[in-house]
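U., I forgot to send this yesterday:
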Amino acid sequence: MTKSNYSRRKFLKTGALAAGAATVGTVAMPQVSRAQTTTIKMQGSWSAKDVFNEMAMDYVDRVNKMAGGRLKIDYLVGGSVVHPFQVFDGVHGGQIDAAHTVPVYWYGKHKAASLFGTGPVFGFNANEGLGWIHNGGGYALYEELMTQIMKVDIKSFFVMPMPTQPLGWFKKPITSAADIKGLKYRTVGLAADLFQAMGASVAQLPGGEIVPAMERGVIDGFEFNNPTSDRRFGAQDVAKNYMLGSHHQATEYFEVMIKRSLFTKLPAEHQSILQYAAEAASSANEWKAMDYYSKDLQELISKDKVNVLRTPQAIFDAQIKAWDGLIDQLAKDPFMKKVMDSQKEWVRRVVFYNMMNATDYKGAFNHHFPNVLKI
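Result:
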């Protein structure tokens, strides 16, 4: 018998014995967690019609299917138990077990929350931002914020790299930074600080309150997030100028919050399902957004007769200048400085590679679709 034949037979024999032992082991020693059933009550921060509810369910469905009935999430729309902006308190206090939200909604507790999704634009997009969270030290910093600084009973995972959020909806186009001064404008988080620094009067409102505020004249303009969410709550009925592109929220993602004391008591495989379902839903959400957002943008143009414009370069320049002033103020907090330094280190390396390596997508688009892109 040759050495190779002997090795092959030994491998097959050993593998068969191992498989038999595993089968016997499964019958004789079932996993205790398979006899347990845990139901998690999750509330979103989103109104019933918002596409974000559907995206939250992408996460919930993945957890429920992978857990095989042993772990189940029951999902409730925003406001069912607590206010959409108060899910942080709801999870920490135990009114709900989990939440589907964004960190910016609780930045009033600590402004560092806004750095994990709606902070200064250093040059990275949201997908590169998730790379920083998963591989650049961002998650450890978030854990430090939650466990050491905030000391809250919350464990979080991040889901979906959101596209750049538009400058928003206006009754008249914004042509210069001067048009922002005195504007009554809806945004949230550090973006509120940004627009205040640019001279706007800012109102922080949940999505469901935006259109009524616009109708009553409480605000003159607003941003929420994307063409699908905006169209579903009727943005096109109260304004006809939709300006795409902005430096106010360019790197945002959802946050799945789970009560930490509940999470730590779960079997290891259930913890893993909750974690890795976030990564799976992240991709599913992003691909869904490509389809939904692009279709709704075209329907805003063709059906709703909305004037879709690219934000002028002068606005981007004014925003960067305003961010510079805010960064100086934020950096006075040692933890916030540590987070921003970590982000910049990641951006300097990763974005340099991505921008140096990326093909000329704009040139290719213009070649195949001449006179479509007006920028």
